[in-house]
Amino acid sequence: MKEDNRPKFTTKFGVIAATVGSAVGLGNIWRFPYEAGMHGGGAFLLVNLLCVLLIGIPVVCAEFVLGRASRRNIFGAMDYLAPKGGKWWRIAGFLGVLSGTLILSFYAVVAGWTLEYLFQSLSGNLTAGGVRESHAEFNNFTAGWRCVFWTIVLLSINGVVVLRGVKKGIENVSNWLMPLLFVLLVMMTVNSLLLPGAMDGLRFLFIPDMAHVDSSTFLSALGQAFFSLSVGLGTLTVYGSYFPSDTKIVKSASIMAGLDTLVAIVAGMIIFPAVFAFGKEPAAGPQLVFEVLPDIFRQMTGGAIWSSVFFLLLLIASLTSTISLSETGVAFCIERWHLKRSKAVALTMGFVTFFGIFCALSFGPLAHVTFFGMTVFGLFDYVTSNIFLPLGGMMVSIFVGWIVDRVTVDKQLSPASKYVRKSIVFLLRYVCPLAILAVFINNLIG
Ligand code: TRP
């Protein structure tokens, strides 16, 4: 596709809103606090920051470079930028697109849960009637067809947004939702910090607990950085391909990574003070949000309002992430098979909805259908996060560090200084592939 007729984001704000929208999601709001809790609190945070800085930001830059230099999705970008005879790189690109759609299939299920919880919060049901069995309630809901319904609703919203295209759909929606997300975050943080016992929560999050620091801290922190920054699957390549030619890639990657990390920390500052103030267990995992928090909201003054604000926040965060994942598939179909956007959206969303239904049913009717001991949901989650994501990240860093012509990379990274450009290429060539290899091996044997 020629540079001129490819759709583009129109403003600097739009570029930041869309990329931050992709990065900030369930990964920040439930995964980060829980991982931090399990791996030494403040120490995890420190290692995570290092990973974002030394590995995350260079790989984000690499994806933006791929997209903008080729004006193609990851499959087309690898095909276009590989030297003659390097066509097999396309396979890596295809793997990226495929895993992006598979991530979307299970991510949409969890995002669908937030729709149910928002609905229940707004109607007052979630917080009515005092403390009760949140665990059974969550299990009942996820075991039924209601969660299939919400998955389909969520994917349909995605379909409508990406159907409207890059400017009117993605950029427009991000421009509205991201500022709203930040306002809701501030409201929730103030509320949490005013709770009695808030200090214990902050101590848990920020003070390193050396007893929980081991080799897995480093590896989990890197895995968290990757998932949270949306790197490795070509999602950011597609967004990079919509950047205007004067967008500063290094600066955008840094702002995106900075805000993404900030939101993760702030999410911890919202959740842990509340968890400690109400005497709950901080390392509860996914249930933290869907089982522990409703109990807390029930005991809080104005609980129905706060739970509505919280689940709206979670919904917005997941929606802008699922939009970026949807566009990864849509852009591929448009370019690869020369489909109209409407057909590409129908095809991608049809594919994802099909697999999404199986993921949604994994907690009820299909709970007994397992592969290698995992449900469909578990399998998709495991294969994409532990295999495709690190593998994709490694391919991208090797491809941009070693294969793509240096002049092209330099041109895309400028106007960053020569020193910055050299450092990024150095990190992409040596540090990123080796570090990712370590995570990869650890995940496979761990
Ligand atoms: N980063 C998002 C989150 O933190 C999830 C996400 C969106 C993602 N696009 C991605 C993860 C691409 C990996 C790859 O929730």
Main traits of this protein?
mainly alpha; 18 helices; binds tryptophan; Hydantoin permease; 446 residues
Short account of what is shown:
Helices cover 77% and strands 0% of the residues. The chain has 18 helices and no strands.
Notes on the structure:
With 446 residues, this protein is mainly α. The chain has one domain (3-445): Orthogonal Bundle (Hydantoin permease). 77% of the residues lie in helices and 0% in strands. It is built from 18 helices and no strands. It has helices spanning 12-23, 26-38, 42-70, 74-81, 89-122, 134-143, 146-163, 166-193, 198-206, 215-229, 235-241, 249-277, 287-299, 303-337, 341-360, 376-403, 406-413, 418-445. Helix 2 packs across helix 12 (249-277) and helix 3 crosses helix 4. The longest helix is centred in the last third of the chain and has 35 residues, at 303-337. It is globular. It binds tryptophan.
Give the arrangement of secondary structure elements.
Blueprint: H1 12-23, H2 26-38, H3 42-70, H4 74-81, H5 89-122, H6 134-143, H7 146-163, H8 166-193, H9 198-206, H10 215-229, H11 235-241, H12 249-277, H13 287-299, H14 303-337, H15 341-360, H16 376-403, H17 406-413, H18 418-445
Helix pairs in contact: 1-8, 1-12, 1-14, 2-10, 2-12, 3-4, 3-10, 3-11, 3-12, 3-16, 3-17, 3-18, 4-5, 5-7, 5-14, 5-15, 5-16, 6-13, 7-8, 7-14, 7-15, 8-12, 8-14, 9-12, 10-18, 11-14, 13-14, 14-15, 16-18
Bound molecules: tryptophan.
Tryptophan (TRP) binds at residues 22-23, 25-28, 103, 227-228, 230, 232-233, 235, 321, 324-325, 389.
